[in-house]
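Pilot study result, target chain (102 residues):
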Amino acid sequence: MGEIERIIAAPAEQVPFGRVPSDLIRLLTVDAIEVCRCPSYTHAWTSTSSGWSGVLLELDDRQCSRRGSDRKRGDMTIRQIVDEMLAGHIEEHCTQMAASLE
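Predicted structure:
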């Protein structure tokens, strides 16, 4: 969501966005998730997703059409970023969790 908010707030089009695997924020987030217990992670996820889903629902067509430029995928609209990188990423994790529960 931070990357999406940065694209919307930027004065220019095609703002570079995305984090590489070595990005400090990404590494710290992964480390924090690995050391926390499932119930506390579930609570954090629920409160965080409620916050960003509310922000996404308030975006207008102009904001959804704003573009950022990803290092790997190239130029993408906010709508594409949400569909491919946010929703798609969540779906991948759900598939992983379902497989591990089996």
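One observation from the pilot: Residues 2-101 form one domain. A full batch analysis is planned for the follow-on phase.
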